[in-house]
Write a structure and sequence with these properties.
By secondary structure, the chain is an alpha+beta fold. It is built from seven helices and four strands. The structure holds zinc ion (ZN).
Length: about 160
């Protein structure tokens, strides 16, 4: 079995175990660096009451803690399903090199996990989205940015 298949099989097993054990939704993710598994997680949304605890986000949290960094450059992620917008964004923020996925978002939609709504929302102008988003107190909030700019050695982010 080639390494890609080995790690994807782990992600898929996590997704299956979540269902077989009545633990949570059928999603799993594995993060790999230099051919070694760094982190793995299944979806933990309902089991931990955390709407952000998708498999990919959970695996990123574990990997960053283990490697003591917020930058997963050099890592790849294997996920049992095409990432939702939140997880896709988290993968970008984590600077992971490559995403490998198995099920498509359409496969997920067929069994009741649709993120199409969010993708559609992102395509709309802000004032046409179903979630109200209103700007306020910018002048006050800008102060933190001004302080940040004045720092001699800002944290590389
Ligand atoms: Zn997700």
């Amino acid at each position: 079995m080639n390494p890609h298949e080995k790690f994807m099989k782990m992600a898929i097993q996590l997704s299956e175990q979540n269902v077989l054990n009545n633990t949570d939704a059928p999603f799993g993710a594995v993060i790999v660096k230099d051919g070694k598994m760094i982190a793995k997680s299944a979806n933990k949304v309902t089991s931990t009451n955390d709407p952000t605890a998708h498999a990919e986000v959970s695996a990123i949290r574990i990997a960053c803690k283990k490697l003591k960094t917020y930058d997963l450059n050099g890592c790849v992620i294997y996920t049992s399903c095409e990432p939702c917008p939140m997880c896709l964004s988290a993968v970008y923020w984590a600077r992971i090199d490559t995403i490998y996925y198995a099920n498509t978002k359409h496969d997920a939609e067929n069994v009741g996990f649709s993120d199409k709504f969010i993708y559609d929302e992102l395509d709309k102008p802000m004032d046409q989205r179903s979630l109200p988003i209103k700007q306020m107190m910018r002048d006050k909030a800008l102060q933190a940015f001004k302080l940040w700019q004045k720092k001699v050695l800002p944290i590389a982010y």
